[in-house]
Amino acid sequence: MCGRRWGDSGDAGAVGHNDAVTTLLDVSTPATRFRLVAVAEAISWAGLLTGMFFKYVVVHNEIGVQIFGPIHGAVFIAYVAIALWVRKPLGWSGRTMVIGLLASIPPFGSVWFERWAARRGAMAELSTGQDEPTR
User: Fold this and answer.
1) Do residues 3 and 125 touch, judged by C-beta distance below 8 A?
2) CB 31 within 8 A of CB 125
3) How confident is the model at residue 48 (pLDDT cuts 50, 70, 90)?
């Protein structure tokens, strides 16, 4: 299970959705922990952007920002912390680390980085090996 990407369904008899959720929630390795926090960071961005849309466009009410702002802030800090923590176990170069940290700034950049790092061979067992390694 550890070698699959979070959208893979595994064997032909498996239920795709349940298997994808189980694989996403696998936190047995540094790479899978990073992936979980990267996805959570993107989801919290989506919540915050939705809250901002309702605040400034739809109802002019701050409740969405008041809820998702602190959630996103906490998950953002967790993303930065885990990115710093997994650098050594995953063998990331300084360049890869900087790209990973910069990816936390734009919305959904954390998921882009996780997929980019996996293609480059920098996500251990989650790596797809489609591009050259950049460790």
Assistant:
1) yes
2) yes
3) very high
- DSSP characters for 19-42? HHHHHHT--SSHHHHHHHHHHHHH
Please answer whether residues 48 and 70 qualify as being in contact, where contact means their C-beta atoms are separated by less than 8 angstroms: no
Backbone angles phi, psi at 10, to 5 degrees: 80, -135
List Cβ neighbours of 66 (8 Å cut-off, separation of 6 or more).
Answer: 51
- Whole-structure pTM value: 0.76
Decide if pLDDT at 6 tops 50: no
Cβ–Cβ under 8 Å, residues 4 and 22: no
Q: String of b and e for 20-50 (b: at least 16 CB within 10 Å)?
A: beebbebeebbbbbbbbbbbbbbbbbebbbe
Whether 106 shows a pLDDT value over 70: the answer reads yes
Beta-carbon count within 10 A of 79 CB: 24
